[in-house]
Amino acid sequence: IWRHGDRTPSVLIPTDVNNTEETWELGLGELTKLGLQQEFRLGRFLRERYDGFLSKKYSPFEIYVRSSDYNRTLVSAQANMAGLFSPTDEEIFMPDIKWRPIPVHTIPKYLDKLLNDEISCPNAEAELNRVYEEDAKAKQIERENANMLRYLGEKAGFGKIPIPLKDMWHLFDPLNSIVRFRN
């Protein structure tokens, strides 16, 4: 089990006019070139670690690859498999392409109760809300950072001032993606 590699942001900061959907050639939430490299290297690491346990040659009787139904996760799985299973000479189907396609299976998001991170779970949502609304540590963090949360809420344009601690992901995601993509 592994996650996807680096991706473009999934959400944008409304007031950031220099970081719009048009900024990201592939679109939002898509795997970047760095993400592809990370996944390929992870496949190579898995090959090294499990060499002898896994056959060098891909076999559908030995491995089954399942992904959630997002472009970034499907492409991550493909890049990982490319690193894990370098094609043998007899598997190369085009001399200039050193790659062997390996099936990656998925099911539609709305049916995926195993890998879909957007599936609704009322108990989990209630617990998350309880933590942010009632937990003493969460409340302390909000009190200690009230000025910063107010400032971020005003500047980001999400319509929540101060920005709730629970919504900080909406700031972290685009800022983290920009830093990782541009460095």
UniProtKB/TrEMBL annotation:
InterPro entries: His_Pase_clade-2, His_PPase_superfam, Histidine_acid_phosphatase. Belongs to the histidine acid phosphatase family. SUPFAM superfamilies: Phosphoglycerate mutase-like. It comes from Acrobeloides nanus. Pfam families: His_Phos_2 (PF00328). The lineage of its organism: Eukaryota, Metazoa, Ecdysozoa, Nematoda, Chromadorea. Gene3D superfamilies: Phosphoglycerate mutase-like. CDD domains: HP_HAP_like. One of its GO terms (molecular function) is phosphatase activity. This is Lysosomal acid phosphatase.
